[in-house]
Write a sequence for this structure.
């Protein structure tokens, strides 16, 4: 089974995915909108399995962000499902309400396949991230945390980026283990207003 690579999507295809996310959220408020996308409307790249994250912000503040790192479903369906989940199932936030829609922005990030990075120490990882501003997944002892590459805009220093990622996973800021698995990935993304 082939997997959609983030590098293969053009602006038109990304715009279609943003529209899918909008429709998924709109469908929560209207019974007239189908509960899943019509695959016949989309080309092969968007109906091939893909992994994505959908990030929602209301008035510039995070309102929801859920996604997948492994491609199981057609990309267009994954975007639809993740948009609905980010709006109404992210347990960190109250479900999106209709009065927030005028201030809502949606970002769809299509992930490349995460690659395992061999690191001998945390410093090796930090040195790599000094020049490569990629997405990072840390995993160890049944805990895992992920930051999309967009987080670099808020945490531009590698040490701060990794420290906050470890806190997100539930580890202490200075935690490191010889068993720590590091995966890196890139995204192709598009962001737009709900209206």
């Amino acid at each position: 089974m082939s997997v959609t690579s983030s590098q293969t999507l053009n602006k038109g295809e990304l715009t279609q995915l943003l529209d899918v996310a909008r429709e998924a959220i709109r469908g929560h408020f209207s019974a007239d909108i189908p509960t899943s996308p019509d695959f016949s409307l989309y080309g092969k790249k968007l109906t091939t399995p893909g992994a994505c994250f959908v990030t929602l912000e209301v008035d510039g503040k995070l309102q929801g962000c859920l996604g997948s790192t492994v491609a199981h479903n057609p990309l267009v369906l994954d975007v639809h499902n993740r948009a609905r989940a980010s709006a109404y199932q992210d347990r960190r936030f109250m479900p999106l309400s209709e009065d927030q829609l005028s201030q809502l922005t949606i970002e769809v990030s299509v992930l490349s396949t995460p690659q395992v990075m061999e690191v001998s120490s945390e410093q090796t990882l930090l040195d790599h991230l000094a020049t490569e501003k990629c997405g990072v997944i840390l995993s160890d002892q049944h805990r895992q945390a992920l930051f999309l590459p967009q987080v670099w805009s808020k945490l531009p220093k590698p040490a701060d980026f990794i420290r906050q990622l470890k806190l997100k996973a539930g580890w202490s800021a200075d935690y490191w283990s010889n068993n720590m698995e590091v995966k890196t990935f890139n995204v192709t993304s598009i962001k737009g207003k709900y209206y």
In short: Helices lie at 11-29, 44-47, 75-88, 122-129, 158-169. Strands lie at 52-58, 61-67, 104-111, 115-117, 135-140, 143-147, 181-185, 187-193.
